[in-house]
Amino acid sequence: MTPLDFGDPPFSVVRLDEISPVGWKNGGGQTRELLAWPDAEDWRLRLSVAEIRRDGPFSPFPGVVRWFAVIEGKGVVLALGTEEKTLRAGSAPLCFDGAAAPDCRLIDGPTRDLNLMHSGGRGTMAIARPGEAWAGDFAQRGLWSAVAGRLVGERGRPVSIAPNTLLWQPDAKPGAWRFEPDAAAPAEPAAWWLGYTPEESRVFS
Rg of the Cα trace of the chain? Predict the structure, then answer.
């Protein structure tokens, strides 16, 4: 993660093409880890992009809250208990108990998916609608974008973002952000807000 001092406080940037993929033990896909906080071995927050190549169960993560969004491909069907959740590229992110380890069925070919997992505290993932303000009240927050654009905030200069890139503020301050894609707004969501506050952190007011 590279720090970029675009304002107060600075952002960090993680580009997907600079991260080596790690294959799953069951051979069903691969994951690229964007961020693990406070460290990769004992994380409380983990952001990643996964490529699901075939049907199969998710790995169980007891004590972890998972947020999941399809960002590319035709989508998946997740079996959560007696319910089935159909998620496509335009669907709102789904939040569920990581211990549930749902079965995943591909709708029509491989998908690329954005994941936020946290142990303790509170987190969020939400679609970033072009031009709409988001004032996520979190100790850490950021933006994942599949397209080029700018993150415009109330502090500092606008921050440019390349396709398939995470912008992250590990010490976020209050204030609304907006996402402005370089091209015309895509038909499907192309960016997602992400936020996390550890249990011991004070929420800004």
Answer: 16
